[in-house]
Amino acid sequence: MNMTKKRMITLLIGIIAISLAACGPEGGQKPGSVTQQKGADPAASEQASYATLFQTSVFLGDSITEGLSFHDVLEEANVLAGAGKTAQFALEDIDDLVKRKPKHIFIQLGSDDILWPTDNPKEYSLTHYAQLIGMIKEKLPDADITIIAVTPVTAEAEKEEPRYRNIADYNQGLKELAAKEQAGFVDLAPNIADHPNLYDADGIHFKAEFYPLMLDLLKDQVK
């Protein structure tokens, strides 16, 4: 047998082997094939829905807010946040915020503010918070502003850091500030109380599953 015939036979055997591997009984598609897995991933679909709903929004905040992009619930372009961020430090983000041209701005600050080493952390923070809102109104006059209350911590976290007991009082200050500035105000605490399993190990931050719940509670603010 010459080399040409050998090559043709080898090629024919290869084609038959590939055909048999691709087919199951009676020539059907093999289980687990791409054709049988065309269904969309529900989590990916939900994420795309939030990305669309909040595509003209920016979330300005601390490490809790940062979880929105860290867990890939929203794009980084829609989240302007970082660990240790306070109302005072957020003033440095104004130029970046303006560049993003948001129609809706959600501010979630205070978790670090109430720990600030000053005689009156609440007063100190709310003074800068009011300044922050004033600058946003000046540079983005058509944007809607919603203040999100500081999220509660677990009893264990509060025991470890007693200053977290001031969260309710601080949130009352935020609520009054929102009314004064004619901004929206949303308190997530009642819903978090129904889902204690969403806390991360430190009892302060949250697992990825928390953020879709958070956005569900905020979606009316962008309609």
UniProtKB/TrEMBL annotation:
SGNH hydrolase-type esterase domain segment(s): 59-211
PROSITE patterns in UniProt: PROKAR_LIPOPROTEIN (PS51257)
UniProt keyword Signal present: yes
InterPro entries xrefs: Ester_Hydrolysis_Enzymes, SGNH_hydro, SGNH_hydro_sf
Signal peptide: 1-21
Annotated keywords: Signal
Name listed for the protein in its UniProt record: GDSL-type esterase/lipase family protein
Originating species: Paenibacillus residui
Taxonomic placement: Bacteria, Bacillati, Bacillota, Bacilli, Bacillales
